[in-house]
Amino acid sequence: MTYATDVHRYANDLVMEHGEDAPIQAALRAHTLLDQGDRAGYALWRRIGSMSNVILSKTAVRDGRVS
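The chain above was modelled as a monomer; its predicted structure follows.
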């Protein structure tokens, strides 16, 4: 499995669990890791948050919530 696939999978799981709050949850996790000095973890969770926004926007378009 590739890094991009892992990011997409984690983001999808986050969206399934938290819905529209997924990007916020990812940001909270990212900042917790940064506070702990884990820059790689921070970067990973920022990417997961970004991907969760993409997933949510595609879901919104598909569901007709965005014109």
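The chain has a mean pLDDT of 90.
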